[in-house]
Design goal:
Number of helices: 5
Number of strands: 0
Strand content: under 5%
Helix content: over 70%
Number of domains: 1
Structural class: mainly alpha
CATH class: Mainly Alpha
Length: 183
């Protein structure tokens, strides 16, 4: 793939010049599409939990939502591991890991995973009927994870990935390609 010349970081600071991503960065970005679809679907369902006054027991709806969240987590975990295990360490050589973009990305990964885990654990602990108020409280963890990840994906696509494209040399991009694998 032909590489575009460095563009003085314009794209990472809100500039208008797009950066063509190398294959492994493009793959990470492309993975966001199906993940976004899955999480938008579970977030819509989570937002409806507790709204229908005619439902006395929400445990079944929460269990169904948990199946969707668990399927999403099964797709999210390998994606975030590729970022945390391959991309972030390569970038950290240049910008550090204790503060700045990598620290924020890792914090957001952890925050989203914590909310998803809290949701799943709450559903697993259900005994008996769940009223609307309790169901909304449980579902709110899934909604919070969705909010974090929606913003997170946007930051990666518009800031982090273009920054990596401009920052990493060809050898590092090849190493990233080996770690990310082929699409």
């Amino acid at each position: 793939m032909e590489q575009t010349p460095h563009q003085c970081g314009a794209s990472m600071f809100g500039g208008r010049m797009p950066v063509e991503l190398c294959e492994p960065l493009a793959r990470l970005k492309k993975e966001h599409g199906p993940l976004r679809e899955q999480m938008n679907a579970f977030a819509r369902e989570a937002a409806e939990i507790g709204l229908d006054g005619g439902v006395a027991d929400w445990s079944g709806r929460l269990a169904e939502l948990k199946r969707k969240v668990d399927a999403f987590v099964g797709e999210l975990d390998p994606h975030s591991e590729r970022e945390e295990g391959a991309l972030f360490p390569l970038m950290a050589k240049y910008i550090g890991r204790e503060s700045g973009p990598i620290a924020v990305m890792e914090y957001e990964h952890d925050l989203a995973k914590t909310n998803l885990k809290k949701f799943s654990e709450a559903v697993e602990q259900i005994e008996g009927a769940v009223d609307a108020a309790k169901a909304k409280e449980i579902a709110s963890c899934a909604i919070q994870a969705h909010a974090v990840l929606t913003e997170h994906f946007m930051k990666e696509e518009n800031v982090l990935f273009p920054m990596a494209e401009n920052m990493l040399n060809e050898e590092e991009k090849a190493k990233l390609a080996r770690a990310v694998g082929s699409a």
